[in-house]
Request: fold
Amino acid sequence: MGKKSAANIFLIFMFFILYAPIFYLIFYSFNSGGTMSGFDGFTWEWYEEIFQDTRLFIIVLNTVVIALLSALISTIIGVFGAIALRSLKQRQQQTLLALNNVLIVSPDVIIGASFLILFTFIGFQLGFYSVLLSHIAFSIPIVVLMVLPKLMEMSPSLVDAAKDLGANSWEVLTKVVLPYITPGIFAGFFMALTYSMDDFAVTFFVTGNGFTTLSVEIYSMARQGISLTINALSTILFLVTIVLVLIYYYLSQRSGVKGVNFRK
Amino acid sequence: MENKTRTLYMIPYIGWIILFVVAPIALVVYYSFFDIHGNFTVGNYGKFFTPVYLKMAISSFWYAFLITIISLAAAYPTAYLLTKTKHKQLWLLLIIVPSWVNLLLKAYAFIGIFGAHGAANQFLDIIGIGTKQLLFTDFSFVFVSVYIFIPFMILPIFNALDNLNPSLLDATKDLGASKWTTFRRVILPLTLNGVKSGIQVVFIPSLSLFMLTRLIAGNRVITLGTAIEQHFLVTQDWGMGSTIAVFLIIAMFLIMALTGFRRRGA
Amino acid sequence: MASTIIQFKNVTKQYGQDPVVLDNVSFEIEKGKFYTLLGPSGCGKTTILRLIAGFTEPTSGEIFFNGKKVNDIPANKRQVNTVFQDYALFPHLNVYENVAFGLRIKKMKKSEIDKKVKEALSFVNLNGYEDRDIQDMSGGQKQRVAIARAIVNEPEVILLDEPLSALDLKLRYQMQYELRELQRRLGITFIFVTHDQEEALAMSDEIFVINKGKIQQSGTPNDIYDEPINRFVADFIGESNIIQGTMIEDYVVEFAGKRFACVDKGMERNEPIEVVLRPEDLEITSPDQGLIQIKVISQLFRGVHYEILGVDEQGNEWMVHSTKKAQVGMEIGLRFEPEAIHVMRFNESEEEFDKRLESYTEDESDGK
Reply:
C-alpha cells in the first residue's frame, strides 16, 4: 500500500507541475492589480480590453484563416501523396518517406530560416501568402504520416474486389479507399490545424511586416513584459483548446485511432 | 493503380518535396558560402570554428543534453505509473493537454512565476530560503524547457510500455526474475525505442529554442537557434546564419542516425 | 502410488464485483502425470493455471504445493514454469538467450548454462538454432523454444496454456505426439489447458472438464468419454445423441416412446433422466429389425464414415456414424446394445456419480 501511495503522490506532483502554470495564468487574468503577483481584486477589465481590441480580433481571424486553409490544402495534397506513395515500390517509397520526414524532425528555426531564404531567393512577397505556403509546407508530411498507416493496413484485395464488381478508378477511390482511410484523414487534418495554430518560429521568420498571427503577437507582447491582457487571452485560448481536445478525443475514440498523437 | 492516375496524384506531392524540402536545404548550403556583403567566401566556416561560436555550440549541446536527461528522468516513471492506472488513456490525454497550450503562453506564465515577486519567490520566502533572482538564469531556462518537453517525452515511452505484451512480464516472473531484473532485462530493452523517440523529439528542438532564451533566460543562454535567429532577423548576416544552420542540420542527421527515425509518438 | 504435488482446497476466484470465475473448486494433482483442463473459453481453466503459476491469488480457499500452502508465494519463487499461449518469447533476445533466461537469473555458471541450454534445445529438436532471432522462427519452432525455455529450469510442474491453438492442424497433431512423448521422457507433471476435446482425449492421463467455474467431471479420457456425468460433458466431448427419458425401474429405461434394457440402476422408479447414445454405437439396419426407426434427413461423407441425421416418430433428432450409406428420405432402423445406453441423472454430484458407477462393477464381480 505504501508503494502505491508513493506512486500516486508522484503522479499528482507531475500533474500539479504541468497544470500549475496554466492555472496561474488564468487566475491572474482576473487580477485588477495589473501584475502576476499579489491579487488585488476581481475584474473583467482585461477581457473587456480584448473584446474591444479590433487589431487583436483581426490577428485572431488571420490565425484561424491560415490554420483552416493550410490544414485543408495540406490534407488534400498529403492524402493524394500518401495514396501515390502506397503504390510505389519499397525502395522509392523509403526514399520519398525519408524526404517527407525531413520537415518533421527539423527544428522550427531551420524551417523558418530556410523558407525565408527560399521566398527571398524567388522574390516572393512576405506576408499572408508566404505564411500560408509555409504552413501548408510543414503540415503536408504530418498528414502523410497520419494517412499512410491506414492505407498500409488496407488489404489490397479490397481494391481488387471493387474492380471485380465493376468500379472504375474514380469509384475505387471515392467509394472504397477514401472511406476506409477517413479516420486517418480526419486525424491528419486536425493535426495540421493544431500545428498551424500553435506555430510560432516558422511564422516569425516568414511573416515580414504588416501581417501577424496570434503566436507572433503574444511573443512581441511578452517581450515587453507582463500585461494581463495576455493572461485573459490565454484563458480564452485554453478553453478553446479544451473544446478542440474533446472533439479530437471523441473523433479518435469513435474511429479507433490508437493512442493520442500530438504536434511538436 | 494505373500509372497515369498515380502520376496525377504524385505531381503536387513531388512538387512540394522539391520546392519545400530539397530547395530550402540546398539554399541554406548555398547561402552559407556568402558573407554579409554578398561575396563568395568559405570564411563563415572558418568563423564557426573560432572560440566564440564553438563555445556557443558546445553550451547549446550541453543545455540540450541537460534538458533531455532531466525530461527523461521525470517522464519514464510518469509513463510507467500512468500505464498502471485505470482509464490510462484519459490520464495520458490529461498529460498531453498542456502541450496543446501555446508554448509562448507557457513561457509567459513563467515570467510571472519566476518574477521577483512571483509565486516561486514567495514560496522560497515562506520556507526561509529568501527571494532569489530566478528569471534570466540558466536554471529557469532549463526548468521551463523541461516543463515544455515533458509531455513529448512521456508519450512515446507510454506507448512503448503500453504495447508491451503482458504475458512477457508473466513469463519473466515465471522464470524466476525479481521486479528489478524484470525491469532491467525485459521492460527497459523493449521500451528502448520509445525512449529513443522521446530523446529525438526533445534533444533536436532544444538546440533551437530561441524564443525561450529570449523570454526566460535573458541573454544568459545562447543556443544555436538563438544565433540563427540573431543572424537572420537582427544582424542580417544570412551567410553566417546559414552556416550555423548547416551545422544544426548535420547535428540533426547525426542524432537521427543514432536514434533511428520513428514516427513521433509511434 | 503417486504422491500429490498440487492440491486446491475450496478455491474461489472473483475479480471485484464480477461473477465468480472459479466457484469453490477442490482437486488434487499427482506427480508425473499428464493432466488436461478442458472447457469452453471463459470457463475458468486458465484462471486455475494462473493460480498455480502464482500470477494471481485466490479470493478464498487454499492452494498447496508439495503439502505447503503457497497462496502468497509470488510466481518467481515457485517451482513451476509456464508455456504461454502466445509463447511470450522475448523479442529482443535470440533463441539461446530466451532459453537461458531463467538460468541466468539463478546466476548459474556460464559453462553449466551452456550445457543445459544445448540439452534443452536438443530435447525439442532445435539444435543449431541458438543464434536465430525469435522473429525468424516459424510458429512450430517458437512453440518448441517456449517449451525448451520452460523445461530447462527443471520445474516440478509445467503449465501449458493452449500452446497448440496457434498452429495449423497438421503441426498440431505432430506437436501432440511430441508433447506426450516429452512428458514421458521427463517424467514431469504437465498441466495442459485446452478447449479442444480431441486434443484432451489424445494426450491426457487425466482430464478435468470445467464449465462455469466448476469442475464438472474428472477422470481418464475413457471414463469421461464413455460415462459422461451430465449433458454438458456429453455434449462437449465427442458427438452424442441426448434424449429425454424415464427410468422405469433398475435395468429398464424408456425413451423415444419405447422401453429398453440397460445396465444402469440405483435410481428412483419413474425418475426422469437423460440418455446418451454415441453416434458410433448406433448400427443401421432395415426398419423392421431396428429398435428405433428414423427418417433420414441429411447425410455427409466425413471420410472415415458417413454422418447421417434423422428424426424418429417422436421428433427426436438422431446422429449416426456409419460406414454404410443411407438414402435421404429413406426410413431406416437403428440397433444398439444395452451397454451403449448411458443414463444421466439430473444434478448428480461427481461423488454420487462415481459411487453409482462403482456399484455396477461390484455387481458384475458379484455375478461371477
Observations:
- Residues 249 and 267 of chain C are 8 Å apart (CA to CA).
- DSSP finds nine helices and 20 strands in chain C.
- Residues 239-282+336-368 of chain C form one domain.
- The radius of gyration of chain C is 24 Å.
